[in-house]
Design goal:
Elements lengths: L4 H39 L3 H4 L3 E2 L7 E2 L2 H32 L5 H13 L2 H19 L6 H25 L3 H9 L4 H12 L1 H17 L2 H6 L17 H8 L5 H28 L1 H5 L1
Antiparallel strand pairs: 1-2
Helix pairs in contact: 1-12, 3-6, 3-9, 4-6, 5-6, 6-9, 9-12, 11-12
């Protein structure tokens, strides 16, 4: 039986979309490599790891270590995920299994509104509310902790909505079977629902940490933007994205090329994250 015209059109459209998505990624990576090449060729990749800090105006060639900003980026993103992931899963469990039928839709819309708030609004709220509060605990206020709290709140809706969607797609047979075995609600959630929804929950966590890695405005406003490896959560940090946003407007020549190396490092972080998530996924492990 030959495929119909609509089937052929669908296959062609899907193939074209896949090719366009792949081409976009290749073009972005190629652009970053071309722009970063002068700095990589002139300084060498090792300079971006062993230079004494980031100070483009220092000496004849400047100092271009990305290590402090890599550390700041990873610390802020991982800290935000450690806050958002448990809260998001608890939120999803509440909305799916415990919330009254009249409350659940309203609660879900509230989470969706949180997901749609622009990052600059989160940053402004953090600057006005969180930073002074942290300053009273330990100056200066603009710090790694402020970035973790703001980013954690930002990515929480992503984990919550993805986790709830994963829980809603579970077959009803799972729950009827659990009821037949005499399992209570919490035993069913803990032993059946959460393990079965783990791939969807993991996808939500991946999207959350990817958003955290790429966030600019919020961390720019609350993290303090000091190039250093923080010794405590109360010290200021600068992320890779904030560094690019701060310096791209006036950077020239080698300095400008080094900022594209920062972008390339960020793309590499996301790529490593994709590979790790793919390796840890149940489907890949089964294959």
């Amino acid at each position: 039986m030959s495929p119909s015209r609509s089937d052929r059109t669908l296959v062609f459209s899907l193939g074209l979309a896949a090719v366009m998505a792949g081409a976009a990624i290749v073009l972005i990576v190629t652009f970053l490599l071309v722009e970063a090449w002068p700095a990589l060729r002139h300084l060498g990749p090792d300079r971006f790891l062993r230079d004494g800090g980031w100070l483009p105006s220092a000496g004849a060639e400047g100092r271009f270590s990305l290590v402090p900003m890599l550390a700041g980026t990873v610390a802020v993103s991982v800290g935000a995920l450690l806050l958002a992931a448990p809260a998001g899963v608890v939120s999803a469990v509440f909305c799916r299994f415990y919330a009254p039928s009249a409350l659940a839709p309203f609660y879900r819309r509230l989470i969706e509104v949180l997901a749609g708030i622009p990052s600059v609004v989160y940053g402004f709220w953090g600057l006005v509310v969180l930073v002074p509060w942290i300053h009273r605990l330990e100056p200066p206020g603009q710090s790694l902790l402020a970035g973790i709290l703001v980013l954690g709140l930002m990515v929480f809706p992503t984990v919550a909505l993805m986790s709830e969607a994963a829980l809603k797609t579970l077959p009803s047979a799972y729950f009827s079977g659990a009821a037949a075995l005499g399992l209570g609600r919490w035993a069913t959630i803990r032993g059946i629902a959460l393990p079965a929804a783990a791939p969807g929950i993991g996808a939500g966590c991946f999207l959350a940490v990817a958003r955290a890695l790429g966030e600019t405005m919020a961390v720019l406003m609350v993290c303090g933007n000091v190039v250093q490896v923080p010794a405590t959560i109360f010290e200021p940090v600068r992320t890779l994205t904030a560094n690019i946003a701060l310096e791209m407007a006036y950077a020239t020549r080698l300095h400008r090329s080094a900022l594209f190396v920062s972008g390339l490092a960020l793309m590499t972080l996301v790529g490593v994250l994709v590979v790790v998530v793919d390796r840890l996924s149940p489907e890949t492990a089964h294959d």
